Amino acid sequence: MEKIASFTINHLVLEPGIYVSRKDKIGAETVTTFDLRMTAPNREPVMNTAEVHTIEHLGATFLRNDKEWGDRIVYFGPMGCRTGFYLILAGDLTSRDIVDLVTRMYEFIEGFEGEIPGAKPDECGNYLDQNLGMAKYLAKRYLDKTLRGIDDKHLVYPQ
């Protein structure tokens, strides 16, 4: 069986950043999958499910309500390894194209107060598995260490 592209990235040198994971054609349209890597794989602790779940709820809500990008959001969700998230957008895009969007999303998460959207038993299959405090901490960490002032090294996968 052929190895999928994401398994060819050397995770021993991968750092937090925003990376184009793949581009796919669907008819005449292109969709771009982004790797929003929040922790250094195999070198930093992974995120726990509760905070990942909260980031997913808040991030998806923010993205789908964004005036500029909302109608281009295909998917936002966690990586199985719990080191980041995938964001799939309609269009042939670069990492640089979405820095502002991703920064604004994590600022929204960092500053969020109140009831987590979609975190009720009739709205979510595991509504109790949430951790807003840790989600806010991780959002701030990603903003401070990666997103604000991001450079090209953290926008293109390492060779």
Describe, in plain words, how this protein is organized in 3D:
With 159 residues, the protein is an alpha+beta fold. Helices cover 29% and strands 20% of the residues. The protein has three helices and four strands. It has helices at residues 49-65, 99-111, 132-147; strands spanning 17-26, 29-37, 73-78, 84-90. A four-stranded antiparallel β-sheet has the order 1-2-4-3, with helices on one face. A hairpin with a 2-residue loop joins strand 1 (17-26) and strand 2. Helix 2 runs antiparallel to helix 3 (132-147). It is globular. The model has no long low-confidence stretch (mean pLDDT 96).
Helix content, binned percent: 25-40%
Into which percentage range does the β-strand content fall? Answer: 15-25%
Radius of gyration: 15 Å
Low-pLDDT windows of residues = none
Helix/sheet category: alpha+beta
Number of helices: 3
**Sheet with the most strands, sense and barrel status:** 4 strands, antiparallel
Report the count of strand segments. 4
Question: What's the short version?
Answer:
The protein has 159 residues and is an alpha+beta fold. The chain is 29% helix and 20% strand.
Question: Mind sketching the topology for me?
Answer:
Elements: E1 17-26, E2 29-37, H1 49-65, E3 73-78, E4 84-90, H2 99-111, H3 132-147
